User: Which sequence fits this backbone?
């Protein structure tokens, strides 16, 4: 809104698209239930984006300016959309290659049902801490752990919550993570000061999460799990060549991720390598999957791996749970998730280009008088940004820029702001169905965001820990030395 001829939006105008979105999403969930994310929510987001753009036109902005803002906003998500396509291909080829079945097979025998949820959270935390990516963690070991939970007769929803809790702890605390580097860069503090300061809020939240997952695990029904376990092991053995060699594609992905090879390239290599391993180790599986006896052997292998990459793998054994477990993947499985992300980013971009987002944030800053209220407003703003803009990076950068001067004016060290950004923007992003992170986790793990979010204990607890610290002024560091006198 650089043109002086345009009018600044009012608070009522800023709230109009938000209020309408809340109403439409409520009706969407009421009418369509868990299927609301398969089109109804997208329509709601598009309608509200249109309302925001109409406000911009009313205030004197040109259509060209508004259109460019929306297109630029959507372009931010292009990388995430490509990653989603690659992950879809990876899931399909990993199942066909026996990578996922082998992970499930050995996981079923190693992981005890009583400790499964705690172990899942811990495993994902360690992997994400090592490679710095919650997305890669969920798309690799997360897929296997979801399968193990079904094999043990445990809740997929709770398992997804444990995976996401662990993955986001590791992502948040890893110096290799993009968000962990972004938050201190935006606020003007250094990386390792930022990480050390985050430990005060992050560690208690993780410990509490472990305790909750342990309590849930100890109350599981062990007798039913033993029967499900035996059936699943037999089915896996009957339908796949279970071999440790099939885990090589997963190890290659971990190595590439650790070496900070770009995510799209890393996942694509993992998918294509699995396609090769499928031909080597699962030739009989491919023949059954393609089910075209008239084709030459080489063409059967080609069609099998090709199909797994674009439309996923499917199997029919008569066991509904088993079939659902391994009939997944393919690029096409991610198209609805991409649809959701594009419409959500359109709404967020419309709110930003019209100045409505800026108006909301400025109003929130103005009412925060105490330190506790200021940090609480950052938490609320970042969570709101995740809802409105559907992107965790925007939810870090925009509030970070807008609150930076206010923190300095009040004599608060920049590391307080960077920690608060991560305690809210990074952590809550997978809890919103249309956020890029929430949509990715739902698409990858095969569990709806609305079903798993209540079990993401780490993600839910961390903002509360951060707010409690702020209320009692605990570990809220003032500016020291020369910077305080500037």
Assistant:
């Amino acid at each position: 809104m650089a043109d002086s001829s345009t009018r600044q939006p009012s608070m009522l105008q800023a709230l109009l698209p938000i209020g309408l979105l809340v109403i439409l999403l409520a009706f969407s969930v009421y009418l369509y239930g868990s299927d609301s994310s398969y089109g109804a929510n997208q329509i709601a987001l598009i309608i509200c984006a249109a309302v925001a753009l109409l406000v911009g036109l009313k205030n004197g902005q040109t259509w060209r300016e508004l259109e460019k803002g929306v297109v630029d906003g959507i372009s931010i998500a292009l990388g995430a959309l490509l990653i989603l396509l690659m992950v879809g291909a990876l899931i399909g080829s990993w199942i066909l290659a026996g990578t996922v079945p082998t992970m499930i097979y050995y996981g079923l025998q190693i992981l005890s049902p009583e400790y499964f949820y705690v172990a899942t959270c811990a495993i994902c935390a360690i992997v994400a801490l090592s490679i710095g990516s919650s997305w890669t963690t969920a798309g690799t070991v997360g897929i296997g752990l979801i399968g193990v939970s079904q094999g043990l007769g445990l809740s997929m929803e709770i398992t997804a919550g444990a995976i996401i809790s662990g993955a986001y702890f590791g992502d948040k605390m890893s110096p290799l993570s993009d968000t962990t580097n972004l938050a201190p860069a935006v606020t003007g503090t250094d990386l390792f000061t930022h990480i050390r300061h985050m430990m005060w809020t992050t560690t208690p939240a993780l410990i509490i999460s472990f305790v909750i997952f342990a309590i849930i695990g100890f109350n599981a029904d062990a007798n039913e799990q033993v029967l499900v376990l035996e059936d699943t092991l037999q089915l896996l053995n009957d339908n796949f060549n279970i071999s440790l060699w099939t885990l090589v594609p997963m190890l290659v992905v971990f190595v590439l991720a650790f070496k900070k090879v770009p995510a799209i390239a890393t996942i694509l290599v993992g998918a294509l390598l699995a396609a090769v391993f499928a031909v080597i180790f699962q030739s009989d599986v491919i023949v059954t999957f393609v089910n075209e006896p008239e084709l030459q052997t080489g063409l059967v292998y080609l069609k099998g791996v090709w199909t797994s990459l674009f439309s996923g793998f499917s199997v029919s054994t008569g066991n509904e749970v088993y079939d659902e477990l391994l009939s997944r993947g393919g690029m096409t499985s991610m198209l609805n998730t991409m649809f959701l992300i594009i419409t959500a980013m359109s709404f967020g971009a419309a709110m930003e280009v019209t100045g409505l987002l800026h108006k909301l944030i400025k109003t929130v800053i103005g009412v925060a008088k105490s330190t506790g209220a200021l940090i609480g407003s950052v938490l609320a703003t970042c969570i709101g940004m995740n809802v409105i803009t559907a992107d965790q990076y925007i939810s870090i950068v925009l509030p970070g820029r807008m609150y930076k001067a206010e923190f300095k004016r009040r004599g608060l060290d920049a590391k307080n702001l960077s920690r608060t950004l991560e305690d809210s923007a990074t952590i809550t992003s997978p809890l919103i169905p249309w956020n890029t992170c929430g949509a990715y986790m739902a698409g990858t793990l095969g569990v709806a965001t609305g079903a798993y979010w209540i079990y993401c204990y780490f993600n839910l607890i961390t903002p509360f820990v951060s707010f409690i610290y702020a209320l009692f002024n605990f570990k809220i560091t003032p500016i020291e030395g020369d910077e305080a006198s500037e």
The radius of gyration is 24 Å.
